[in-house]
């Protein structure tokens, strides 16, 4: 019986280690309140909400809902449990997060359907200690369209864009 308990504990620990993102990434993402302005758009977060604009696309996310709008203003949404969605994507091998050191990460989202959109992404991103991005280079695939973004922010403000967030998210 003790052997079974020990084996179960080891398997559980290994499972958790595989599924959890790098600890410093979680710390940085939860700590940050910022709006980073890039030449291609904006990324804003406050630890439990996120808002982004990239080449005409907009997205607003919290722990329970995601909304994605295309450049024509057509928005789709999905009720989610962010933690359950994360675990599902990781367990299926659809989400890869690699710690590259120094606050930099490689993130890959293999093709999935979220909020009635077909999404995929490959990104290299770096975050400062407060969670704000210092560099993002990514190729996003949204409903078959390729959206490339890259570079460092022109400026970072320590505020969250609640007006823009609520305009499309609604809650």
Helix content class:
25-40%
* Number of helical segments with 4 or more residues: 4
Major beta sheet, strand line-up:
6-5-4-3-2-1-12
Gyration radius, rounded:
17 Å
Please state the structural category.
alpha+beta
Let me know the average pLDDT. Answer: 86
Total strand segments: 12
**Overall geometry:** globular
Please give the alpha-carbon distance between the first and last residues: 49 Å
**Strand/helix succession:** HHEEEEEEHEEEEEEH
Strand content: over 45%
What does the main sheet amount to?
A: 7 strands, antiparallel
Poorly predicted spans: 1-20
Keywords:
single chain; 171 residues; alpha+beta; 7-stranded antiparallel sheet; 5-stranded antiparallel sheet; globular; disordered N terminus
Explain what you see.
The protein has four helices and twelve strands; from the N terminus they run ααββββββαββββββα. With 171 residues, the chain is α+β, with helices and mostly antiparallel strands. The chain is globular, with a radius of gyration of 17 Å. The N and C termini lie far apart (49 Å).
């Amino acid at each position: 019986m003790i052997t079974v308990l020990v084996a179960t504990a080891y398997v559980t620990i290994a499972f958790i280690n595989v599924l959890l993102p790098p600890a410093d990434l979680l710390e940085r993402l939860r700590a940050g309140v910022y709006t980073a302005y890039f030449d291609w758009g904006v990324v804003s977060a406050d630890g439990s909400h996120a808002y982004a604009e990239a080449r005409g696309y907009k997205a607003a996310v919290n722990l329970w809902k995601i909304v994605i709008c295309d450049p024509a203003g057509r928005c789709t949404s999905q009720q989610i449990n962010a933690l359950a969605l994360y675990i599902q994507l990781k367990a299926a091998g659809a989400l890869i997060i690699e710690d590259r050191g120094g606050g930099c990460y490689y993130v890959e989202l293999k093709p999935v359907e979220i909020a009635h959109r077909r999404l995929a992404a490959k990104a290299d991103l770096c975050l400062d200690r407060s969670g704000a991005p210092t560099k993002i280079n990514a190729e996003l695939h949204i409903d078959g369209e390729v959206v490339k973004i890259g570079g460092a922010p022109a400026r970072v403000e320590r505020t969250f864009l609640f007006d823009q967030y609520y305009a499309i998210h609604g809650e």
